[in-house]
Design goal:
By secondary structure, this protein is an alpha/beta fold. Helices cover 32% and strands 27% of the residues. It has helices spanning 3-10, 12-15, 48-57, 92-105, 133-144, 165-173, 189-195, 213-219, 239-246, 281-304, and strands spanning 34-43, 62-69, 76-85, 110-114, 122-128, 149-156, 177-179, 201-205, 222-228, 250-257, 267-274, 308-311, 315-318. The strands form 3 sheets. Strands 7-6-5-8-9-10-11 form a 7-stranded mixed beta sheet. A 4-stranded antiparallel beta sheet has the order 2-3-1-4. It has a two-stranded antiparallel sheet with strand order 12-13. α5 (133-144) packs across α10 (281-304). The longest helix is centred in the C-terminal third of the chain and has 24 residues, at 281-304. It is globular. Residues 1-20 have low confidence and may be disordered.
Length: 319
C-alpha cells in the first residue's frame, strides 16, 4: 500500500469532508449607529459626569465628545455630550425616559436630548423686511441642507414682485410668502402670531420692526435676531455710510436672542472683519452684509445643534 493510501485510511473524515453537506449560518449585518446630543444644565454637585457617562454607557452608547463648564463660584453645571448608540438597543422613548430620570436626580433646569436622524427638524418662520441678503442666504442654506430646519413660511412687511429671486424661489419650493404691511400704529402682530403657530423658533433676517412685549410673551419660544456691529455708535438709516465716512477700521455683526430690551438679548454669535482706506462704500457694505449672513447662519446652526445654553441673566454658554 502506498504512503498516500495509508494516510488517507487513517483520516477518513478529513478525506470525506468535501462530500458532506455543510451549512453556514448567515450573520445579520450590525445595526447602523445613530448620533445623539444631550445638553445638561443643573446645580453643581459631585458625580454628575459619572452619572451622565453611566447613563449612556449602560445602554451600549459611546461618548464621542463631552464639553463641561462649571463657572467659578456660581454653583451651576453645564455640559454637552455627543454620542453614538444602537437605536435597536436603546429606543428613542427609553432614551428620553433615562435622561428624564437623570434630570430629576440633579434637579436640572434644562435637560434636552436630540437624535438628528430620528427627530423632526426644527420648524421656523423667517421675518424679513426690504433687505434680501440674510433671507436669501437662509433659503439657500435650507435648500443645501446646511441648516437643519424646515421653513414653514416667510413673513415680510415689504412687498416683493412676482418676478424677484426670492418669490420665484419660494414658489418653486412651496414655501408660503406673507406680505403684512405695517404702520407705527398697526404692527399686525396678531397675524404674525397666527402664522407662526407650531414653529419651534423665529428668525429675524433683518426684520426692521420692533416686536412688542406682548408679542414676545404671547409667542413664548426663542427668537433669533441679527444686526450689524456698528451699534451703538451709528444708528438710524444708513449706518454703514455713517461708519464709512467716520473711517472705522473694524466692522462686525451680532446675532442674539430677542428680549424686551431692544438689541440687548443674550449674544449667540459675533463676527468681525477689518476694513481699510482701500475700501469704498460698496465694498464696505458688501463686507458688512457678508458678516451678517455668516453670523446669522452660524447662530442658527449652533442653536439647532444644542450648543447654546442660558448663562446668568444676559449671557449664554456656547459649546
Amino acid at each position: 500500500m502506498s504512503v498516500v493510501r495509508r494516510v488517507c485510511s487513517m483520516f477518513p473524515q478529513v478525506v470525506g469532508f468535501s462530500k458532506r453537506n455543510i451549512s453556514f449560518k448567515t450573520l445579520d449585518p450590525p445595526s447602523p449607529l445613530a448620533h445623539g446630543i444631550h445638553v445638561f444644565y443643573c446645580p453643581d454637585a459631585v458625580g454628575i459626569v459619572a452619572k451622565l457617562s453611566d447613563c449612556i454607557a449602560s445602554r451600549g452608547g459611546n461618548i464621542l465628545t463631552a464639553d463641561v463648564f462649571v463657572p467659578e463660584n456660581k454653583q451651576v453645571f453645564y455640559s454637552r455630550s455627543d454620542f453614538v448608540f444602537d437605536p435597536a438597543k436603546w429606543p428613542r422613548a427609553q432614551m428620553e425616559e433615562d435622561f428624564l430620570k437623570l434630570s430629576q436626580t440633579f434637579n436640572a433646569m434644562r435637560s434636552v436630548v436630540r437624535v438628528p436622524a430620528l427627530d423632526p427638524k426644527y420648524k421656523i418662520a423667517v421675518l424679513a423686511s426690504k433687505q434680501d441678503h440674510c433671507l436669501v442666504d437662509l433659503l439657500h442654506g435650507w435648500q443645501d441642507g446646511r441648516l437643519p430646519v424646515d421653513i414653514t413660511c416667510v413673513i415680510s412687511n415689504h412687498h416683493r414682485a412676482s418676478n424677484t429671486h426670492v418669490i420665484r424661489f419660494l414658489e418653486r419650493h412651496g414655501i408660503p410668502y406673507h406680505c403684512l404691511s405695517t404702520t407705527k400704529e398697526e404692527k399686525r402682530e396678531g397675524e404674525i402670531l397666527e402664522l407662526a403657530q407650531n414653529t419651534d423658533f423665529l428668525v429675524l433676517a433683518r426684520y426692521m420692526q420692533i416686536l412688542s412685549r406682548n408679542f414676545l410673551r404671547s409667542y413664548g419660544n426663542d427668537i433669533i435676531n441679527i444686526h450689524h456691529g456698528l451699534l451703538p455708535s451709528f444708528k438710524g438709516s444708513h449706518p454703514s455710510k455713517q461708519a464709512f465716512e467716520a473711517g472705522v477700521k473694524l466692522i462686525g455683526a451680532t446675532s442674539h436672542f430677542v428680549t424686551e430690551e431692544l438689541d440687548e438679548g443674550p449674544i449667540i454669535e459675533q463676527m468681525v472683519e477689518r476694513v481699510s482706506h482701500k475700501d469704498n462704500l460698496q465694498s464696505f457694505v458688501q463686507k458688512s452684509e457678508n458678516l451678517e449672513k455668516q453670523c446669522l447662519r452660524s447662530a442658527i446652526r449652533s442653536y439647532c445643534e444644542l450648543r447654546v445654553l442660558p448663562y446668568e441673566e444676559k449671557k449664554t454658554v456656547v459649546f
